[in-house]
Amino acid sequence: MTISDQTLERMRELASRYPQPRSALLPMLHLVQSVDGEVTTDGINACAEVLGISPAEVTGVSTFYTMYKRKPVGEHHIGVCVNTLCGLLGGDAVYDALSERLGVGHNEPTADGKFSLERIECQAACTHAPVMTVDWEFIDDVTPAAAVDVVDRLERGEQVLSTRGPAIRTFQATEHTLAFPDDGLAGEGTSVDDKMLAGLRYAKEHNMSAPAHGQEA
Ligand code: FES
Known about the structure:
Blueprint: H1 5-15, H2 25-36, H3 41-51, H4 55-64, E1 76-81, H5 84-88, H6 91-102, E2 108-109, E3 115-120, E4 132-134, E5 137-139, H7 144-155, H8 171-179, H9 194-205
Parallel strand pairs: 1-3
Antiparallel strand pairs: 1-4, 2-3, 4-5
Helix pairs in contact: 1-2, 1-3, 2-3, 2-8, 3-4, 6-7
């Protein structure tokens, strides 16, 4: 899809927010994904033009980070963490159940374009392992049956709440939020719970504190 004048204007708005305009490249690439559903060649060229850098430099960044997609993903993009803790607690089984339900493998979209699936790395959410994400929103403490149920409900057009954020929207809607975070949804859902605070609580109960800088050894 060709990048519209309106999207170009929003790219310039992002670039103007930083002392070094190229610092805006990451949100600009999220903006491209919010309008095109992937990082398109047109999107890369538009970022390069706005920032005064080469398309090769933009491409280098977009292929380094796995959140940027060079192929179309589904309307809902599902990630399953299979790193150590999630894997040990069932992440691989969750991935296998979703792969079977959707009939796709890693980084593949379904034929109808409704879903895509990806094995993802640690999401810094290990307190609630195993976790899956739908359009980057968390579904914590997930089981194979619960993961398939999320897909079933989304397919029926039902509302699905993430476990620590807003209701699931779409990949492209969340990508817009990653470009412009002020979407009014920051207060939705439960952001902190007892499990997340357990380490802090234990440290306080046992009078533990971090060593002063330089005294770590
Ligand atoms: S290992 Fe899955 S969130 Fe950390």
